[in-house]
Amino acid sequence: MSKIWWFKHDYKAKTDNKLLELELEFGQHEGYSIWFRLLETMGECEAKLDKRKFSIYASIIRIDKALFERFVAFCIGLGLLTDAGDYVFSERFTEDYQGIVAKSEKAKHSAESRWDKERERKADADADALRTHEKPKPKRPLVAKSAITDIPETEEIKKLRESVNELVNLGKDATVKKPNNVCCTLSNAQFQKLIDKHGINDKTLRKYYLWKFGTDKSVKDDYLSILNNMEKDWLRNEATDKQQTDNVKRHF
User: Fold this and answer.
1) Where does 133-187 have alpha helices with state H?
2) Is the whole model's pTM more than 0.85, yes or no?
3) Cα–Cα–Cα angle for 112, 114, 117, nearest 5°?
């Protein structure tokens, strides 16, 4: 079973003096909501927020950049956030995040070790079987790889593409680790497959492109990269929620 990523949320958070000050400054529900949305976004960005990408974070949280900058400055003044020059972070959140990463890495190494031993055992068993019953393997016919035929752009695809392009344009204005990552390579056919088979929605695509702009890896094919990341809870859960909702609608 995949590890669910989470951070601590005290059930008495609503009575915390610093959070009460946020509510007084930005509104009872607005201050509380923006703070926890900011923490969620921070968790997606390795527990820190790059100042050069404030416009992107503001878009993800769905507030103006000016409000986002004022909110961050106010949190720094309260001691909820720390200014580290090029980025800001929360000391408590960072401690929790590092603990989760350490546990995840330990579990990953343990699983890889078990799989390596299993692969070695299976390879030895297969080698013994081949030596006992060795038969020539039939040659597989070469099959040409068919090109993906694109389809007309539907209204749903158009809205998703416009949302992605909005985020891509913001990414072009920011300094990212891999400049070549600031683009969208999805065709109409690939958009439709992601919608029909995987329940991809606007929020899922925004989370994916935020990850893409901040990763050290070069991403040449968005479609394959999204399918690969669908195996991870942070991206798959968003799509699964939409797919379940669509299934209920079709049932009725």
Assistant:
1) 155-173
2) no
3) 110
